[in-house]
Design the sequence.
C-alpha cells in the first residue's frame, strides 16, 4: 500500500544470501523463457518488404558490431567492420538483428583469445554482397542444415537464429543467404541483396 511491504521484502533479501541467489535464478529463468518466446515469434512472423524505408548498411553493421562487443571482448575475439556506405531498403532494425545473429555465431565459433571476425560488403554485378567471415572451427556438418529450425550443435540455444536470419533476408529484403566453410576451418556467411 505505502511501499512498506516492498521495503520489508528488500530488507529480508539483503539479509539472506540464499534468497538473493534464488531471485537471481528466477530472473535468469524468466529472461531465458522470454528470449525463447521472442525467437518463436520472430520465426512465425509474416514478413513484408518495406521498400519505403532506406537506411545505411554501414550504420546497421556498426550498431550490430557494438551490440555483440561485450560477447566478443569476453571471448578475446576481434570484430572489424569494413563496409561502404551503401543504402538499403527495408527495416534497419530487422537487418541489424540479422547481422547480430550472424556475428554472434561467428564470435562463438572462434577459439578464445584467437578469434578474428570481419563484416564486409561490396557491390558486384548489380548485387550487394554482405559477408561475415571468421577464423573459427568451421562448419563440419552439411552447411545447409544450419538453416533448419531447431538444428544446433551448441550446448545452449534452440537453433532458431539462422532460420530467423534467412527469413528476414529472403522475405523482407528479397535476398539470399549462403554459407561457405573451407576444409581448414573458418566460415563465411554471405547475404546477397538486390541493389537499392
Sequence:
Amino acid at each position: 500500500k505505502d511501499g512498506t511491504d516492498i521495503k520489508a521484502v528488500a530488507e529480508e533479501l539483503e539479509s539472506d544470501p540464499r534468497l538473493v541467489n534464488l531471485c537471481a535464478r528466477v530472473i535468469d529463468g524468466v529472461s531465458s523463457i522470454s528470449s525463447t518466446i521472442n525467437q518463436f515469434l520472430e520465426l512465425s512472423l509474416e514478413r513484408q518488404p518495406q521498400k519505403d524505408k532506406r537506411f545505411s548498411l554501414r550504420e546497421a553493421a556498426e550498431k550490430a558490431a557494438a551490440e555483440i562487443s561485450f560477447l566478443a571482448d569476453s571471448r578475446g575475439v576481434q570484430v572489424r567492420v569494413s563496409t561502404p556506405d551503401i543504402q538499403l531498403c527495408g527495416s534497419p532494425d530487422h537487418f541489424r538483428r540479422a547481422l547480430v545473429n550472424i556475428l554472434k555465431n561467428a564470435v562463438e565459433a572462434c577459439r578464445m583469445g584467437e578469434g578474428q571476425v570481419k563484416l564486409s560488403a561490396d557491390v558486384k554485378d548489380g548485387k550487394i554482397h554482405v559477408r561475415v567471415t571468421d577464423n573459427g572451427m568451421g562448419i563440419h556438418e552439411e552447411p545447409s542444415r544450419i538453416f533448419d529450425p531447431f538444428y544446433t550443435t551448441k550446448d545452449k540455444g534452440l537453433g532458431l537464429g539462422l532460420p530467423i536470419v534467412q527469413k528476414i533476408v529472403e522475405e523482407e529484403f528479397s535476398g539470399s543467404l549462403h554459407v561457405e566453410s573451407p576444409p581448414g576451418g573458418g566460415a563465411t556467411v554471405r547475404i546477397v541483396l538486390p541493389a537499392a
